[in-house]
Amino acid sequence: MKKVNIYFNRWFSVAYHYMNLLRNNEDGVPVQIFATHPDIRHMSLQGADIAGTEPALKGIEYVQFCVDYCRRNEIDIFIPRLHMMDIALHAAMFEAVGTKVLVCRDLDLLEMILDKGKFYRRVQETGIMEIPEYHVVNTAEGFKEAYEDLTAKGLRVCFKPTETEGGLGFRIINNSRSPLEELFGYVTQNISFDDAYRILAGAETFPDLMVMELLEGYEYSIDCLSDRDGNLLAAVPRRKDSGRLRVMEHIPELEAIARNVAETYKIPYNFNIQMKYSGGVPKLLEINPRMSGGLHVSCLTGINFPYLAVKSALGGEVQPVRFTHDLLASHVEQPMIMKVHDESVVTDRVN
After folding, report:
1. Residues forming a β-bridge with 235
2. CATH, range 109-115+216-329
3. What is the three-class DSSP state of 67?
4. Is residue 347 scored above 80 in pLDDT?
5. I want to staple 272 with a disulfide (CB 3.0 to 4.6 A). Which of 3, 72, 255, 292 is the partner?
6. pLDDT confidence tier of residue 287, bands split at 50, 70 and 90
7. What ranges do the domains of the chain cover?
8. Which long-range contacts (CB under 8 A, 24 or more apart) does 247-250 make?
9. Does the pLDDT at position 208 exceed 60?
10. Which residues contact 183 (CB under 8 A, 6 or more apart)?
C-alpha cells in the first residue's frame, strides 16, 4: 500500500493530535507526516516524522515556499493553516506539483468567512441561523454609538476584531469592575466602556471591530466534516462544561444548523461552527474553515475527522456517519521526552 505524504504548515500545538489521528487511521493506510514551523521546538512538530523551519514570508513568496516544499518532498496532501487565503488563491500551483490542498476553493466564500462582519451580513440575508445583535465600527465615535444602541436594548456588550482567531482581541464591557482587585488577580477580559473608548479615541481609525451583544448561555463548537464537494458527512456538537470537562452530545437544532450551513455554503473537508445560546436560542459566533482547536476531543466519538477528510480528498468513498452515544471527556497533562529534529537545539543556553 502506497504511503501518503501529508504536510502541515504553521499550525497550533493541537496539530500533534491531528497527526496521530492520521497515523492511526482505521484503514491502516501508511502515512508520512511533514511539518514546518518557525520554531523547530514547537509542540506541533512532535507529531511529525519529518519537521523543519519555515521562513517569515507573506503573500506569493510564502506560497512559493510551500509549493517548493511540497514538490521536493512529493507531498500528496497539504493541510494549511497559516496564510490560508493566499494558499487557496494559488491552489493550482500545488496541483501542478501533484499536491491536493485541503482548503475551500471558493475564494469569495473563504474571504467572507474570514471576515466576521461580512459573514454576519451574508448569514442575515440567508436566514439560515440566528446572529447576535451587532455593529461593525472603526472609529471611537462609532464604538460609542454601537455601545449605546446595544445597552439601550438591555443587552450586555462585548467586542472583537472582525479578522482574528480564537479569543484574540475579545473583551467584555464591564463598568462595575475593580481595577485594583484585577491587578492582584488573574488577567481578565473585562474592560470598562470609558477605558475602551479612551484607548480607541487615541487613533483616528482602527481595524474593524465587531461590537455585539454578550451571549451568556452554553457555547458549542460543532465540528463538521464534508466531502470534497461540500456534502455534509458528520457533525458533532461539543461544549465546554465545568473545568476541563467537555461534552459531545446530540442537539437536533445544532445538527440542523450544520446541515443548513453545509447545504448553503458547500465548505469542503473539515470546518467548525461556533454557536452560543441566549435565551434558549443558539446564535452564531463564527465559522472556521479548518480543523478546530478541540477537534481531537470530538474524535473520541469514533469519527476520525482528519483522516476522513484526507481520504475524501484522495478520491476515497466516505459515507455519512453519526456518533452513537453522548460522551463526557476531559484531559490531563502528560510529560514527554521531546523528539529532537535539530540536534543544535539541545545545546541552546540563555546568556
Report:
1. 224
2. 3.30.470.20
3. helix
4. no
5. 292
6. very high
7. 4-103, 109-115+216-329, 133-213
8. 247/326, 247/327, 247/328, 247/329, 248/297, 248/298, 248/300, 248/301, 248/323, 248/326, 248/327, 248/329, 249/326, 249/327, 250/323, 250/326
9. yes
10. none
